[in-house]
Amino acid sequence: MKILSSENKIKISKSMLKKFVKENFGIMISKDATEELADILEKKAKDISKYAVEKAKKEGRKKILTDDIESYKLKRE
Question: To 10 degrees, the CA torsion angle through 27, 16, 30, 11?
């Protein structure tokens, strides 16, 4: 899936998202549903990134590690 970023925004390619749904689930997705799904994924990606950056900085690192991403998932469970 193609992800574009500019400054503080992440944009997920809607055409790639439509293709992903079609190829993986064998069903088409409407334009409105694609836009809504992309918005949700973009917000989630931003939340996860922000959490991972804060965790890395708190631990004195300048690099996000897999553990930072996984700890976001565990935090939500």
Answer: 140
Q: What is the CATH number of the domain that holds 41?
A: 1.10.20.10
Distances (CA, A) of 66 to 1, 5, 32, 69, 72: 20, 21, 33, 5, 10
Q: What's the number of domains the chain is made of?
A: 1
6-19 pLDDT, tens digit per residue, is 567 788 999 999 99
pLDDT at 5 over 60: no
Give the residue numbers spanning the domain of 47.
Answer: 30-77
pLDDT(3) > 60: no
Q: Is 67 a domain residue?
A: yes
> In this structure, are residues 53 and 37 in contact, taking their beta carbons and an 8 Å threshold?
no
